[in-house]
Amino acid sequence: MSKISKFFKGGGSAGSKGRGGPSPQEALARLRETEEMLSKKQEYLETRIERELAVARQHGTKNKRAALQALKRKKRYEKQLNQIDGTLSTIEFQREALENSHTNTEVLKNMGYAAQAMKKVHENMDLDKIDDLMQDITEQQDVAQEISDAISNRATFGDEFDE
């Protein structure tokens, strides 16, 4: 494979070799890095816009050419700032979608583990044995109730005899 085709197919990337792409954690880390970089660039452009506005005010009517040039630079910086805002929104949306997908994957994986555990627990259970056990429990509860009723009834030793 030529160097150019490796470059365009991503063959040179060490993080994605043999796995079919980056892990969610790697992708999230890169998206966060990009967000931080763009945020810093936003701050830089905002200070440049303020500086150009101050230059335009300073020159005002005295030097119209310098004031117009400062306003043109300010407008360019504002355009770049708007582009960065759009890019940041897209990156935030992608990061949130990736986080949600990763969370869903983890939930699904854990639900699979729980299903396997339940299957293992129920492996040794037989419905006929459970039914027999429940019948035995019901019978013993009935016997216990009869005993309790017999004990709780008043003894009427003297009432049975008429004088």
TrEMBL record:
Keywords: Coiled coil, Cytoplasm, Endosome, Membrane, Protein transport, Transport. It is found in: Cytoplasm, Cytosol; Late endosome membrane. It comes from the Eukaryota. GO terms for biological process: late endosome to vacuole transport via multivesicular body sorting pathway; protein transport; vesicle budding from membrane. Residues 1-25 are annotated as: Disordered. It holds the Pfam family Snf7. It comes from Rhodinocichla rosea. Transmembrane segments: none annotated. It is a peripheral membrane protein. GO terms for cellular component: cytoplasmic side of plasma membrane; cytosol; ESCRT III complex; late endosome membrane; multivesicular body. This is CHM4C protein. InterPro entries: Snf7_fam (IPR005024). Residues 9-21 have a biased composition (Gly residues). Belongs to the SNF7 family.
